[in-house]
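queue> holo job accepted (flavin-adenine dinucleotide)
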Amino acid sequence: MYKIAIIGLGPRGISVFDRIIAYARNDASATPLELYLFDSKEFGPGCHTTDQADHLLVNTVACQMTQFSDDTVRGAGPLLYGPSFADWLISKNSALGKGTDAKIEIDRNGYYSRALFGDYLRWGFEYLKKMAPPHLTIYLHNYAGVDNLQWDKQRWQVAYDGCNFPADFVYLTTGHARKVLSNSEKKLTGQVDAARQRNPRLQLVLEPYPIRNATSSVMAGDTVAIEGMGLTSFDLIAQLTQGRGGKFESAGKLQPAGRLRYRPSGQEPRILLYSRSGLPLTARAVNQKGVFGQYKPKFLTFTKLEELRAQADGGQLDFEKQIIPLLWADMQFAYCFAWLHAKRDKIAALMFSNEFLAADSAHARQVLVDRHVDKREQLTWDKLVDPVPPLALKSRRQFDDWLRGHMWKDVEHALQGNLDSPLKSACDVLRDVRDVVRAAIDFGGLYEHSHRWVLSEFLPIMNRLAVGPPKERIAQLLALMDAGTVRADFGPGARCELDESGASFVVNGYWDGDSERANVLVRGRASLPGPMEDKSPLMRQLVEHGIVRPFMNGQFHPGGITVDRNMNVVAKDGTAQTTLWALGTLVEGCKFYTFVLPRPGANSTTMVDAGRAVGRMFDAIAERNMRLQMAQEELQGVHEDEPVETAVAPPSLSAVPTPAPMAAAPLGFEAAAPARVRRLETDPANCPAFSRS
Ligand SMILES: Cc1cc2nc3c(=O)[nH]c(=O)nc-3n(C[C@H](O)[C@H](O)[C@H](O)COP(=O)(O)OP(=O)(O)OC[C@H]3O[C@@H](n4cnc5c(N)ncnc54)[C@H](O)[C@@H]3O)c2cc1C
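queue> job finished
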């Protein structure tokens, strides 16, 4: 009998759960397993809680989200089919039957609420649970968080609600965490508290999630400064407008399709939106690729990456010099193909493609582009990175005009679609080739300076161009700007500071003298703390006991803990702990972009990582079983003439060679009779395998 624990059952933990069930179902030896699942909340949804408001949407179209593997997933173990979010919505919808009020039209390319997505994940958990084979016993523990995990020289001990649960194998999938305040945040909090004596409406919100809590004490008449123009800020804006009864409606027949008007409820505050770039994320285009139409890289390929790495001194790469040119070539290819397809025809686009692929240098490709694509309509990397023309920076008014035009053009491109719009087609490449980008960055694959550059320069650009909200959100923001509810024209480099004497926040725009006061400041960013700043008792213990170590690329700590390529957690002393794995945002830093959900038809990294981690565990179990069998045979051989007992006592642990310290848990023998394994779902009080600590 082996005991396995998963700590954290959000989407990542569910992927591990899925893989354990898939492997167990295919385990011919039917080795008895006990699986302990721990989460302080309901199993499945993770941060996509089911009680949030319907105006908070997922940022991915339904058909491109799944919790299950498919035929494209390689090296992740046995397949276990399940519905994508879109498939689930459709089947749930038809199950409602005709004439039911709740029945809605399902759009595979639509954006649905996060609460509904949470429902899907919750359902997914139940679906998987039903598929567990009889030799897998599942114990559910979900009314408290795990607050410690320790190694007692025999097994892991999972501390949960005052009990210690022993485990041979442990998966850490605790996802989004809260951050302890930095010194500057503590100082600001203290200053705000002091200034509140003079202005009782002064509020500082450093943790935007859950959105409802973050904004609950904001009142009509308040002015809220939101720092950041990313996805979290769009959530905050939706909560402060739609969430307060405001309505978006069509701007009328005389306006272009997609243009909206905002009808305020009178309950919303005034909102000041600012960021380092001064630009909101761009809209996600209408999905014309379906589920499987991902762009296949022609330049930034895995093979090319391997070649570059083989040539590199020490195997590290320079992202700006070596990866960006390849990425750009792919983006240029997608742009020109879509442009020629639209302006000429498909044959012209295909002929161009052949020439472009055959060109032997960036210069030769540019010559081709110059020959085929109108100069004024060509895409340049510089224009993508910094689209603000110098003229727009002359004054706030000019910037405001330019920004509104820029945002509306963005909506128009998005309406054309991610294949038909040359711009959106090029930007979508950034999403579609993300796995190759990951392979370049993961596990310290870049030079230290280059890793820093990626996080400070490339990541914000990639997010702005390719990881934006649905196009409706940009149209809504424009409508809110038109209605005067939101001001977003502070320009690049805007900052907010506390005016202690005036007991208010002040947002200072790009232009001298351009500032506006606010009484609430909200940080529009979900925190992604590294292990040293993680507020959770579990992570603090893991750090303190040296079970984890912060990931470092040279002197740079990009965040997260260190894992090896099998996702095994590396301890402070550098040992890879072969019975402990970590997946998801915990390892963001060592891995890149760990917080996206699996995409169907894309050999999703989430499934591959989970499959690899679980596969290693089943290998270890098989190996241990084999060693055990050999030990038993040896025992029987020595006492050949003696009768063989039906319940063979486990051999002494010393008979089984144990690798490096903390590298392998000893055999997990239990006195229980495997033949009568039942599937149990219990609370700890009924759990046979817990001890009060
Ligand atoms: C607001 C928001 C919106 C998002 N929208 C999208 C989107 O549209 N598309 C997309 O691809 N990605 C989105 N993401 C990214 C998100 O990271 C993934 O969707 C996914 O939820 C990550 O899954 P996870 O399991 O790693 O983490 P989580 O979803 O955070 O789940 C972690 C689970 O672990 C549990 N846990 C934590 N600590 C403990 C402990 N000590 N003991 C026991 N249990 C514990 C938590 O209760 C939770 O259930 C969004 C993220 C946020 C924050």
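queue> Residues 643-693 have pLDDT under 50 and may be disordered.
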